[in-house]
Amino acid sequence: QVQLVESGGGLAQAGGSLRLSCAASGSIRNFNTMSWYRQVPGKQRELVAAITSGGDTNYADSVKDRFTISRDNAKNTVYLQMNSLKPEDTAGYYCHLAQQLHGVQHFWGQGTQVTVSS
To answer: Coil, strand, or helix at residue 34?
Structure first.
């Protein structure tokens, strides 16, 4: 099992910044992908950004050039630096880890709320 604990959410003004962190613990494989998803009530959870253990990244078009995902493999921690925040970034943000072990395993954090005021 893998446990994911997010931190860093909160309230920001439009144009401001927040940094999310997600610390993973437990049976973590060397090769994995850590991601941030977000969800607003009534809508599907969507991928915000992902990063492999090798450092390859992928971003949703809506956050490119504003958000940066990074990770510290020694600490099993992933970060999401969110700049130039917009009210439409308001959502619950969830950390996700995927790794291969007898098939693909998926793990989720409990989520952290980000609210951006205009």
So the answer is: strand
